[in-house]
TrEMBL record, chain A:
Family: Belongs to the TRAPP small subunits family. BET3 subfamily.
Keywords of the record: Endoplasmic reticulum, ER-Golgi transport, Golgi apparatus, Lipoprotein, Palmitate, Transport
Record gene name: TRAPPC3
Reported function: May play a role in vesicular transport from endoplasmic reticulum to Golgi.
Name of the protein: Trafficking protein particle complex subunit
GO-annotated biological processes: Golgi vesicle transport
Subunit structure: Homodimer.
Keyword Transport applies: yes
Location in the cell: Endoplasmic reticulum; Golgi apparatus, cis-Golgi network
Listed Pfam families: TRAPP
Automatic annotation (TrEMBL), chain B:
Gene encoding the protein: Trappc2l
SUPFAM superfamilies in the cross-refs: SNARE-like
Secretion signal, residue range per the UniProt entry: none
Record keywords: Cytoplasm, Endoplasmic reticulum, ER-Golgi transport, Golgi apparatus, Transport
Organism whose genome encodes this protein: Regulus satrapa (Golden-crowned kinglet)
Protein name: Trafficking protein particle complex subunit 2-like protein
Superkingdom of origin: Eukaryota
UniProt similarity note: Belongs to the TRAPP small subunits family. Sedlin subfamily.
GO BP of this protein: endoplasmic reticulum to Golgi vesicle-mediated transport
Entry-linked PANTHER family: TRAFFICKING PROTEIN PARTICLE COMPLEX SUBUNIT 2 (PTHR12403)
């Protein structure tokens, strides 16, 4: 099939949910290439600004964190998931609902640790890295580090402290991209003064993804 | 199966040139360089006609006794030049067209790589693999 005319039709489409203000238009398809090119431009500009791969990785993580703390609200509003009872449910929700909603891919969950607090997300294809080839002078750059920050920020907003890092990366020659997520602890809410004696959950707290021990 | 494949930039300097067998490399560089004149001639000749009907594939540029040279120009004035062995008469026009289409697709993929600056020499492993698959297997 000739690509010259049909480049747009062959590339992957992303499902882009419009906000609820226009109920008639509920689903629109967006070409993923603009998204991929935008992310690529972001990373290369960071590389030029910082010149040190570690600094770029840290910045990507920070940016991802800022996105994550905002994205969790959007995710909870759209997906209407209830409280997760354990970390396994959280993992399922992340892989099957969140990744599908925002990136259009469904990673698989593997490699659970014996304690049930660590798992791996395996992504066969990563839409952020289409067409990207890492040059040799950036061999320690974690190109998709933004994703780690997003996951960390989003889970922190639902009272879970997690550690997210890349273990395998297709850009570095591995066959799949693997993200390792480790549960560290539950973040206790800081109760307002005078209410510490109340044992019941406060009614104004929205249903959240939280790990119940 | 090509003997030499070259990608020439808009300003007529080479972005990528690879030939197999490697001992006659200079001769192929010279052949590609001289073929650029023919490419320019074809572009200007077709330019006087309707511009939107200009085809990307230029066809046979000129035959020598050993080799045939084919050309292809993109709309951004990047030229692909392919040198093919004359003794290989089984190669039909369709096959040459499809080889150029593959080259164009790979070139577009390289352009999408955010680490590639347009105008740099092409150093992509994926592009090398694709070109190797099109080159003649010399035992």
């Amino acid at each position: 099939m000739s690509r010259q005319g049909g480049r747009g039709t062959e590339s992957k489409k992303m499902y882009w949910y419009l906000p609820f203000i226009s109920p008639s238009a509920s689903l629109q398809l967006m070409n993923s290439e603009l998204f991929t090119l935008t992310y690529g431009a972001l990373v290369t500009q960071l590389c030029k600004d910082y010149e040190n791969d570690d600094d770029v990785n840290k910045q990507l993580d920070k940016m991802g964190y800022n996105i994550g703390v905002r994205l969790i609200e959007d995710f909870l509003a759209r997906s209407n998931v209830g409280r997760c009872h354990d970390f396994r449910e959280t993992a399922d929700v992340i892989a099957k609902i969140a990744f599908k909603m925002y990136l259009g891919i469904t990673p698989s969950i593997t490699n659970w640790s014996p304690g049930g607090d660590e798992f791996s997300l395996i992504l066969e294809n990563n839409p952020l890295v289409d067409f990207v080839e890492l040059p040799d002078n950036h061999s320690t750059l974690i190109y998709s580090n933004l994703l780690c920050g997003v996951l960390r920020g989003a889970l922190e907003m639902v009272q879970m402290a997690v550690d997210v890092k890349f273990v395998q990366d297709t850009l570095k020659g591995d066959s799949v991209t693997e993200i390792r997520m480790k549960f560290i602890r539950r973040i206790e809410d800081n109760l307002p003064a005078g209410e510490e004696c109340c044992p019941f959950p406060f009614p104004w707290r929205l249903p959240m993804l939280s790990f119940q021990l | 199966m090509a003997v030499c494949i070259a990608v020439i930039a808009k300003e007529n300097y080479p972005l990528y040139i690879r030939s197999v067998p490697t001992e006659n490399e200079l001769k192929f560089h010279y052949t590609v360089h001289t073929s650029l004149d023919v490419v320019d001639e074809k572009i200007s000749a077709m330019g006087k006609a309707l511009v939107d009907q200009r085809e990307l594939y230029l066809g046979l540029l000129y035959p020598t006794e050993d080799y045939k040279v084919y050309g292809y120009v993109t709309n951004s004035k990047v030229k692909f030049v392919m040198v093919v062995d004359s003794s290989n008469t089984a190669l039909r026009d369709n096959e040459i067209r499809s080889m150029f289409r593959k080259l164009h697709n790979s070139y577009t993929d390289i352009m999408c790589n955010p680490f590639y600056n347009p105008g740099d020499r092409i150093q992509s492993r994926a592009f090398d693999t694709m070109v190797n698959s099109m080159m003649m297997q010399v035992c």
